[in-house]
Amino acid sequence: MVRVPVNVLVVDDEKDFVEMFSLRLSEFGERVTGVYSGQEALEALKKDEYIDVVILDIKMPGMDGVETLREIKRHHPLVEVIMLTGHGTVDTAVKGMKLGAFDYLNKPADFKEMKEKLEAARDRKAQHEERIRQAEARSLMRRGGELY
Amino acid sequence: MDDESKIRVLLVDDEADFRRPLAKRLIHRGMEVFEAGGGEEALSSLKELPVNVVVLDVKMPGMDGIQTLEAIRQTDAPVEVILLTGHAAMEDGLAGIKAGAFDYLTKPVNLEHLAQKIRHAADKIAARKAKAREQEFRERMEQQMAATERLAALGTLAAGVAHEINNPLAIIGEAAGFALMLMEKPEAKQLPFYNSLMNALNKIEQNVKRGRTITHQLLSFARGGDDAVVLKETDIVDLIHDVIAMVNREAKGKDVTFEVESTANKVYAWTNPDGIRQVFMNLLTNALFASERGQKIVASVEDGENIIRVEIADSGCGIAKENLDRIFEPFFTTKPPGSGTGLGLFMSRGIIDRLGGSIEVKSKIGCGSTFTIYIPKVSKNAVVREPDKHWLEAAKEIERSNSHGSGAR
Fold first, then answer.
1. Which residues of A fall within a CB distance of 8 Å from B406?
2. Cα(A41)–Cα(B249) distance, rounded to whole angstroms?
3. The CATH number of the domain where A138 resides is what?
4. How far B305 CA lies from chain A's nearest CA (Å)?
5. B9-23 pLDDT, tens digit each
6. ω into residue A108 within 30 of 0, thus cis?
């Protein structure tokens, strides 16, 4: 079975972390983009419409993770977001999930757990997209019935 | 109390004819009276008898009253002394008071006066005892509070450090993980020192995990008021069986058995099951660690009106007296490096404190340790939450992953 890579956007102000995390994910076969702030994340999402999942650090200077999440969900509701937290900021992660984040990961994350969550997030996005396609098709069919 | 408030008099006079009737009459007034025929005898009686007031004749052959009084004062026995002086021998009385007598009476003695003086002297002793007790109590409280504050400060500091360590730790972990992935490629097998490199990288990865366990435990402690904790109806007995099932394999390896005693089949509390599970896990793992081959660990649950008492007792090596005060401090451990974080009991105490309960320990070297936990049936931070289903699901998810991520190790 050919594995379809997940398009991931990694957002963290710790550049070394983004670099290493991205390298590892790429090595595993995912397609990874790394950015270092919420602002850059939003720009990247605007440019690249194929991004499935955003892995988002909660603690960042400037626009923090929760704010970034809110913006992402506003402009790209289908993109799934996994929050990256220090264990101490789990409360924030819960808040994030209330705002529509798919899940959260404790930092330093367990790679296996991370991969599972990543794929689950991608699958949910695919399901949503599929449902939208079907809904669109149905509405097209209905409209078609009226036309002819 | 009755025993303590009883007045015990030592009557010291060389003249038995004077002493005997006086003693009888004091006994008649509800006092317990002992007699001594001289200073030396009085001093040796004081060592053995639970006397609180000494009635002392000044004029005695050999060691006189004043000398005896001075000798008594040097023993710091908790007694008051009333002197009996000869008629018109006021100097003796004054000298006695200077030497530390409670008061003096002149002979012939009015019994009413003497009885009253004795009572006053006894009151003074009682007041002094009460004051000492209060002082001791206050000192103990202050010590406890200082210890609690110190623990809290240590916890906050440690959590702050943990947070800062977490990011570099994550980077090290990712870098090592990436390097290990590269090492799996066939061409990497050709590298010189391949085995040494693999060994080193594995060590890095393992120890990042070890570090992560510590930082996560500390950080989850620092979460304090913890919004993510979900309280629910929990069967404490069931929870203990759960945890025993988890550690049973290790116990079997050591030939240690568990026994659960309970006043009821099910003992319910409205509490934080994951927190309590972690506490049980820590205590049972510690008990297991302390136990020797063939020994038994007994967990007993006692259902109370408002509080559930859980006791976990081992008959293992015990905790040294000088360590007993320190076992709840973060990073205090007697296990070899790498086998314990020194956070288990610290965390446990934090969890129990937050639920409004308490944890105690008794231990004797060579006889074992007993930890007693008091869990309130309804936890103090049992807040009624808005029925937000999505939120609850999220919280449950967090609960689940917490219990995996930061269990006792």
1. 87
2. 48
3. 3.40.50.2300
4. 33
5. 999 998 888 889 889
6. yes
